[in-house]
Write a structure and sequence with these properties.
Blueprint: E1 6-7, E2 24-26, H1 31-43, E3 48-51, E4 66-69, E5 76-80, E6 85-89, H2 94-103, E7 106-107, H3 119-124, E8 141-147, E9 153-157, H4 162-168, E10 177-184, E11 186-187, E12 190-199, H5 200-205, H6 207-213, E13 216-221, E14 227-236, H7 245-269, H8 274-278, E15 287-292, H9 293-297, E16 305-313, H10 317-331, E17 339-344, E18 359-367, H11 373-384, E19 389-390, H12 400-403, H13 410-420, H14 429-435
Parallel strand pairs: 2-4, 3-4
Antiparallel strand pairs: 1-2, 5-6, 6-10, 7-11, 8-9, 8-10, 12-14, 12-15, 13-14, 13-17, 16-18, 16-19, 17-18
Helix pairs in contact: 10-11
Bound molecules: flavin-adenine dinucleotide.
Length: 437
């Protein structure tokens, strides 16, 4: 690889709503190439952006001058089955990591609902799954190696460069270019899954029980109906009983992707049909099966959409969701995507969306090509009253002034940023908005 910047075509993210202008692009394969690129960008005063899989909906991964594409920076560095740790180059996709761990009798403690992200991209935006006893992915990190704006490499962990470590686990790409990530993993396990519709009013009355009785509980409220589709995943070491190939294809590929996509397309063409179409969703019935954890956590996503997700204190979940339901009923919005609700344990990472509080996550979606602004703004105004923290990789309308009071360790992040990137090599327009200049 040449360290000289190459001109490239424009880049866009997965959802297609964020696009760069013409930028320099390089695709490093080794840490020394990465370091040379940063040193050369520093000499030329270029703004640098690392790009993982481009699965963020916000402009967080938008390069303005120098794009560093990490698609060839995804090698395994070390795995220790006894200590249950793994170290990988930062551009490794979670799907690849899951396979490596599985072959070694190991697994990630928890995951979100897809595995297309890179490990560095996932932690940088505070990516999470569900499970009130489990944190997001960033809190599973034991150590990082980061190329800083001055071209030096910093090793950091709970015992070395602690402030940098704490902040860079959810660093929004603003503190440096993460070269490698060491994770604490667990012995591999299976998940027993029960998926079934429930009346949403009843579900909310028994919410605490659902959350505490299941390792990983989540649900999807279907707008224009009184139904929620629930998913209860419980950890098990019993042999797996996966869905048959045909049932899996029917439920996960046909119904959750192609049929759902067709329904969304129909709804986009004729929004007034959406409430009728929505009534068909809860009829999707009950599924019970078990499989390896990583196969259950993450699934295929073919239908494209825009998303906003807010973390709020867990105890406010039922009230906040009921306000969203009333708002949808009163607003005249036609919504063809369910509202997803998940839960996580707190952590102590300054800009983690679960920083210092048990969290519920309420996520709203709009099919690609439809106007998301009015709906997302209404939901956001409800989340504001709970000190809601937006997912850094999902759409929202906040700025540094509105966000600062929502994070108890906001100032620590800002002072680490000032120390390691005083000239703001790693900023872009999105980061200027949410973190300040
Ligand atoms: C279909 C879909 C499903 C999703 N499901 C979930 C979910 O279940 N839970 C959830 O929480 N989120 C979810 N997300 C959001 C997604 O997990 C995040 O946006 C995540 O950041 C994407 O990872 P990426 O590799 O694509 O990173 P990108 O979007 O490419 O980058 C994100 C940020 O990470 C930075 N970055 C990347 N690599 C490095 C590096 N080496 N060093 C420093 N900074 C770096 C980038 O500069 C940028 O700031 C979903 C998104 C989509 C599109």
């Amino acid at each position: 690889m040449s360290e000289t910047p190459n001109k490239t075509l424009r880049w866009s993210n997965w959802a297609g709503n964020q696009r760069t202008g013409l930028v320099f692009q390089n695709t490093p394969e080794t840490e020394s190439e990465l370091q040379q690129l940063i040193q050369s960008a520093a000499k030329n005063s270029l703004r640098v952006k690392a790009v993982g899989s481009g699965h963020s909906f916000t402009g967080i991964a938008l390069a303005e001058q120098q794009l560093i594409d990490l698609s060839k920076f995804g090698q395994l560095i070390a795995i220790d089955q006894v200590a249950q740790t793994v170290t990988v180059q930062s551009g490794m996709q979670l799907a690849v990591l899951n396979q490596i761990l599985d072959h070694n009798g190991l697994a990630m403690q928890n995951l979100g609902d897809i595995a297309y992200q890179t490990i560095a991209g996932a932690i940088s935006t505070s990516t999470h799954g569900t499970g009130a006893k489990f944190t997001g992915i960033a809190a599973q990190v034991l150590a990082l190696r980061i190329v800083l704006a001055n071209g030096e490499i910093a090793d950091c962990s709970a015992t070395e460069n602690q402030d940098l470590f704490n902040c860079a686990r959810v660093g929004l790409g603003a503190l440096g270019l993460i070269s490698s990530v060491t994770l604490k993993v667990v012995p591999k396990f299976n998940l027993v899954v029960v998926e079934e519709p429930m009346r949403v009013d009843e579900l909310l009355i028994n919410l605490d029980q659902h959350i505490s009785e299941n390792d990983h509980f989540e649900f999807f409220w279907v707008p224009h109906t009184g139904w929620a589709l629930t998913k209860r995943n419980n950890r098990s070491l019993e042999p797996v009983k996966p869905m048959g190939k045909m049932s899996h294809w029917y439920a996960k590929t046909l119904m959750e992707n192609y049929a759902f996509g067709a329904v969304c397309m129909l709804g986009r063409a004729k929004p007034s049909l959406i409430p009728k179409l929505a009534k068909a969703l809860p009829a999707s019935g009950r599924n019970e099966y078990s499989d390896s954890s990583f196969k259950v956590f993450a699934s295929k996503r073919i239908v494209k959409f825009y998303e906003m997700e807010y973390a709020i204190p867990r105890e406010a979940c039922a009230e906040a969701l009921n306000r969203v339901r009333r708002m949808v009923g009163d607003s005249g919005f036609f919504l063809n995507f369910p509202v997803e609700v998940r839960f996580t344990a707190p952590d102590e990472i300054p800009l983690s969306t679960a920083s210092n509080r048990e969290s519920a996550y309420i996520a709203v979606h709009i099919y690609k090509g439809m106007d998301y602004v009015p709906y997302f703004k209404e939901v956001e105004s409800i989340m504001n009253s709970y000190q809601g923290r937006p997912h850094w990789g999902k759409l929202h309308f906040q700025n540094a002034q509105t966000l600062a009071p929502r994070y108890p360790n906001w100032n620590l992040f800002q002072s680490v940023r000032d120390q390691v990137d005083p000239k703001r090599m790693f900023t872009n327009a999105y980061l200027e908005t949410v973190l300040g200049k």
